[in-house]
Structures are given as structure tokens and as C-alpha cells.
């Protein structure tokens, strides 16, 4: 079996090749997506290792390619926590790898624009799920649940999403999972228009959005499990001290108890100190 790093690098290469094939009008060769998805799903007992690894390689590859790979791995971890069967896990990972391929039809200058977008530019960006869906529907390779996962991954439980503004009962399982994985990775990555945040900030944001935008049941399972994975992890504080997380309070996620050598900090009390980086 390939190492986790080798499989991740393979996913990066696949994402880059698909984007380039679309941009240059070449025929799509999608068999590597299926093979890579099968390989990723062999890491059934490595959820904590996967999250640690993704943190270690964050920002080492262009966001256009790394985001798809990251979402595929994070979605796999969530799917495992939801006890999905193996075939569904493989299809979920395929959805993660391919969920943003519609962006290949959008110029990098718009994708990376740091200034405020015009309404026309916003609508152009919002077109990527439909573009990706149409590209993959035309090649007739993937299951309908994969195609729907790509088309609906920006739909929201309260009907505020796009492209159709669907209500919750119309949004399929893969879309709900991808939406959480997408949110988590986008918040923890450096973008041209903002700096990255810590995983704790991302978890807190997902918790807040579980009341309206994201599936509350899946969010709760995600939060409970990822907190378990992050307890004991090494971190750097805003005062430059390095320590380990002792306890994460599910009610105040960004304010854990941290041990730095022989000293303990309760960040819910030490309000001027925060976790800035996972090591």
C-alpha cells in the first residue's frame, strides 16, 4: 500500500491534470480518480493521522489543486465517522476530488482576486457547480450521487445556497458532507484575500453554521470526533509558547486548556491568548 503522503501527492497530480485537460480542451482521463479513491479508502484506521498530515502540508501546493485533495480526504474521514459502506466511501472521495472542477473554466485572475467582487463576478464564481456537473455528466462515468454531490455542494439547509436554493430535503448526503469538508479546508488554508485560521476556528465556524447552513447531525458527529483527534495535539499560542492541548470544551472550542511545560493555561480565562497554529 502507498504511504499517506504518496497517495496525497497522487491526488494533487490528478487534480492538476484534470484542470489542465479541461482548460486546454483535451479529453478527460478519469480512471485515476477511481483508482486514487480506492487507495484513499484503505486508510480506514488513520483518521487522526490524516488530519495531522493535512495540517502539515497545508499551503505547500496551489490551492486550486490542494483544496480538492484535502476535501477528498476530509470527506473520507467524515464518511468513516458516519459508518458509510465501502462503495459509498469511494464515491464520496470521488466527489471530493471532483467537486470544484467547474472552476477550471473560470480564470485564475477571478479565482484569486483579492478585491471586492462585482455582482457579475460573484455570479460567475457561483456557476462552477453547474459547470462541473455538466462536464462530468457528458462523460457518463460516475454514479448519480457523485454528480449530485458536485452540483449541490454549495446548497444550504435553509435554502440560502446555490445554484438552485434547494431546501434541506432535496440535498443529498454527499453534498452535505462535502459542504462541511469544504468549509473546514477553506478556513484553514491561506487565500489571496485572507490569512488562514486554526482548525479550532474552523470547527467553531462549522458549529455556528450547523444551526442554519450545514447539516446539524453530520456537524455534531464531525465536531465530537475531530475534538477527540485534536486533544493532546501540539500547538503554538499567540504568546509564542509551544504546548499541548489538554482539553477542548465543545461549548467554547477555540478556548481549550493548554499545557506549556509545567504551566497550564485555560484560554477561556486567558482571553488575550489564543491558539494560532497546530504543529
UniProtKB/TrEMBL annotation:
<dbReference type="InterPro" id="IPR037522">
    <property type="entry name" value="HD_GYP_dom"/>
</dbReference>
<feature type="domain" description="HD-GYP">
    <location>
        <begin position="42"/>
        <end position="238"/>
    </location>
</feature>
<dbReference type="InterPro" id="IPR006675">
    <property type="entry name" value="HDIG_dom"/>
</dbReference>
<dbReference type="Pfam" id="PF13487">
    <property type="entry name" value="HD_5"/>
</dbReference>
<protein>
    <submittedName>
        <fullName>HD domain-containing protein</fullName>
    </submittedName>
</protein>
<dbReference type="InterPro" id="IPR003607">
    <property type="entry name" value="HD/PDEase_dom"/>
</dbReference>
Amino acid at each position: 500500500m502507498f504511504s499517506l503522503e504518496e497517495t496525497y501527492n497522487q491526488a494533487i497530480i490528478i487534480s492538476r491534470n484534470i484542470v489542465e485537460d479541461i482548460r486546454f480542451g483535451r479529453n478527460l482521463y478519469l480512471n485515476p480518480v477511481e483508482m486514487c479513491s480506492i487507495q484513499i479508502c484503505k486508510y480506514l484506521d488513520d483518521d487522526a493521522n490524516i488530519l495531522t498530515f493535512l495540517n502539515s502540508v497545508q499551503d505547500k501546493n496551489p490551492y486550486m489543486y490542494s483544496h480538492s485533495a484535502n476535501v477528498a480526504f476530509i470527506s473520507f474521514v467524515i464518511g468513516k465517522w458516519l459508518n458509510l459502506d465501502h462503495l459509498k466511501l469511494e464515491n464520496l472521495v470521488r466527489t471530493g476530488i471532483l467537486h470544484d472542477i467547474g472552476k477550471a473554466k473560470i480564470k485564475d485572475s477571478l479565482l484569486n482576486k483579492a478585491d471586492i467582487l462585482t455582482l457579475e463576478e460573484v455570479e460567475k464564481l457561483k456557476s462552477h457547480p453547474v459547470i462541473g456537473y455538466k462536464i462530468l455528466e457528458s462523460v457518463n462515468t460516475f454514479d448519480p450521487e457523485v454528480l449530485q454531490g458536485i452540483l449541490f455542494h454549495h446548497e444550504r439547509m435553509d435554502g440560502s445556497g446555490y445554484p438552485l436554493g434547494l431546501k434541506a430535503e432535496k440535498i443529498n448526503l454527499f453534498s452535505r458532507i462535502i459542504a462541511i469538508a469544504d468549509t473546514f479546508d477553506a478556513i484553514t488554508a491561506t487565500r489571496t484575500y485572507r490569512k488562514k485560521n486554526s482548525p479550532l476556528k474552523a470547527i467553531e465556524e462549522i458549529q455556528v453554521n450547523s444551526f442554519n447552513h450545514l447539516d446539524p447531525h453530520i456537524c455534531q458527529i464531525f465536531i465530537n470526533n475531530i475534538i477527540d483527534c485534536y486533544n493532546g495535539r501540539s500547538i503554538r499560542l499567540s504568546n509564542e509558547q509551544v504546548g499541548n492541548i489538554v482539553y477542548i470544551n465543545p461549548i467554547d472550542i477555540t478556548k481549550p486548556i493548554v499545557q506549556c511545560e509545567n504551566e497550564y493555561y485555560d484560554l477561556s480565562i486567558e482571553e488575550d491568548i489564543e491558539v494560532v497554529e497546530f504543529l
